[in-house]
Design goal:
Length: about 90
């Protein structure tokens, strides 16, 4: 295998993240990194292992740690982009 070191690195990062998720998701400083890793890990599970429902459910479950204002701003931006309208 050509990239064993990369797979080993990803495995170690995943185990570290899984172990310390409960401590990393609460502080504002580490929350974005923790949630980004959550999306990456669960998207990888969904795509590579074919467990799409599980991956999507876990990504949605992690949204509980995103501020409502952030979700509203993103949803508002997506709706405006879809409708072709913009705020002037």
């Amino acid at each position: 295998m050509k990239h064993r070191w990369f797979l080993a690195l990803l495995s170690h990062i995943t185990i570290f993240w899984e172990t310390f998720y409960c401590f990393l998701v609460w502080p504002k400083l580490t929350r974005p990194i923790c949630l980004a890793l959550a999306v990456a890990v669960h998207a990888g599970i969904a795509l590579c292992l074919g467990m799409k429902t599980f991956g999507l459910a876990m990504i949605i479950g992690n949204l509980v740690f995103v501020y409502p204002e952030t979700v509203a701003a993103l949803a508002g931006g997506l709706c405006q982009a879809r409708d072709g309208t913009s705020e002037a």
